[in-house]
Fold:
Amino acid sequence: MNILNQAIAWYSANMNYWSITALMTIESSFIPFPSEVVIPPAAYVAEDPASALATTGNYPIDVLLIVLFGTLGALLGAVINYGLSIWLGRPLIYKFADSRLGHALLLSGEKIQKAETYFNDHGRISTFIGRLIPGIRQLISIPAGLSRMHFGQFLLYTAMGAFIWNTVLALLGYVANGQKEMIEQYSHELSVAIVVILVLAIVGYVVYRRIKRQ
Structure:
């Protein structure tokens, strides 16, 4: 049994708000861990009383609090990346990403560069939209730290993006009845759909404001 399967087995036996927060903190930092195995199963358990009693040891959990504690964990992990980026600086971040340990953590200078390019192209709002994009979500906090983005704005945008993503995962877990394969299959498509909707909404708002001023 590999480390991921061991973590999933431990989580299944210790599913509560604190384990959700801890695992989402890990997921949001530079350590590779899928949020799809944290939020959706918890949401399914919360809506299935029999499963909840068997899994959480008579400790009731609520879907809204699952999303909130998951968002808290995502925020903590993002702050870790943000702080490490400021502390280490760009040269050490890239050197670590291309090291043997960095590769073991599924990092690379190319991935960091991709996240930094995305941040530079889209500005500070990318810390919000980036939380919804696979491959960017866990790393977008690094260029935010490297550029020393205003910390208050960083927290706000990150929390908003993480809350939306966790809400989607919770709904997906409920609809998919906790089936891991179905959750993995549709989580990517949903994230793309959300980003498209957000972009269209932002473009529509900008166009509306310009027409109103004219």
Notes: The two ends are 64 Å apart (CA to CA). Residues 3-213 form one domain. The first helix runs from residue 3 to 13.
